[in-house]
Amino acid sequence: RDRHLAETLPKNLADNNMPNTKFVVVDYNSGDDMAERISKDHAKDIASGKLIYYKYHADHKFRMAHAKNLAHRLGIINGGDILVNLDADNFTTKDFDRYVDFKFAVAEDVFLWANMIKGVLPKGISGRIVCSRDQFILSGGYDEKYDTYSPDDKDYVARLGRLGFVRESIDPKYLRAVRHNDKMRFKEYPDAAFADAEDFWIDPKNRVVNYGNFGCGVVTKNFNNDVEYD
Q1: Are strands 23-27 and 51-56 parallel, antiparallel or unpaired?
Q2: With 90 as the cut, is the pLDDT of residue 222 above it?
Q3: What pLDDT is attached to residue 118?
Q4: Section 89-95 average pLDDT
Q5: pTM (2 decimals)?
Q6: Which residues have a Cβ under 8 Å from the Cβ of 59 and sit 6 or more positions away?
């Protein structure tokens, strides 16, 4: 998805300017030119601390829920108390960080989600979920049984609700995405179309998952070869 990130990241960085807003980009051992491009195009953003780049070191295929949990835990390590899952093909639009800050200042038990309205909102925005650090840790994050294209986001929203947190739809004006076809969407997991029904099954009772073992792995930070997090 580096092609998408090259389009969305500069715009998102420019559109969100609260003092404590940070963007964490996780390079999930990508086989493209992501590292080279970010080091060249975003050196000032990294130097300022607004952008933090991590490279995950593993030789397995992309795992959807694990990648999200890894990004969230790295966000916490960098001081994040409100966490936004932002897919590489998503635009926040202007002042999304101020909108999020206001929502959590008004109600501490709230979490935000993208309520997909077919025919109105672009495909690809369903993964936008905003939660607090404590909500993420308490719930166990995204269920890592979902390691491919699957309803990991729907499961996470449902579990947060069962834990007693209040779901609120994100204002549609903040939900924009790069339009692309399913060939790109399923590039990292072409076998998803042949997955078993179990892979898409959502437990109607679960509240907590992973039981402390989620978002783990070895990463390096900002092109430094020293291990940052394990």
Answers
A1: parallel
A2: yes
A3: 76
A4: 96
A5: 0.89
A6: 29
What token pair was written down for 74? Answer: 């790295």
Q: Is 130 left (phi over 0), alpha (psi -120 to 50) or beta?
A: beta
pLDDT at 142: 97
| Side-by-side strand order, sheet with 51-56 | 23-27, 51-56, 219-221, 227-229
The lowest-confidence range among 31-35, 117-121, 126-130, 207-211 is 117-121
Residues in a beta bridge with 146: none
The answer to whether residues 206 and 159 touch, using CB atoms and an 8 Å cutoff, is yes
Rg (CA), the chain: 17
For residue 27, how many C-alpha atoms fall within 13 Å in the half-sphere facing its CB? Answer: 25
- The CA angle 4-34-148, to the nearest 5 degrees, is 65
Q: Hey, what are 153's tokens? A: 């986001």
DSSP 101-144: HHHHHH-TTEEEE----TTTSPTT-TT-EEEEHHHHHHHTSS-T
Query: Which residues, 6 or more positions from 12, have their beta carbon under 8 angstroms from its beta carbon?
Result: 23, 86, 91, 92
Q: Which residues of 174-192 are buried (b: 16+ CB within 10 A; e: fewer)?
A: bbbbbebeeeeeeebbeeb
pLDDT tens digits for range 134-191: 999 999 999 999 988 789 999 999 999 999 999 999 999 999 999 755 555 455 555 5
Burial 33-47, CB ≥16 within 10 A → b, else e: ebeeebeeebeebbe
- CB count within 10 Å of CB 135 equals 21
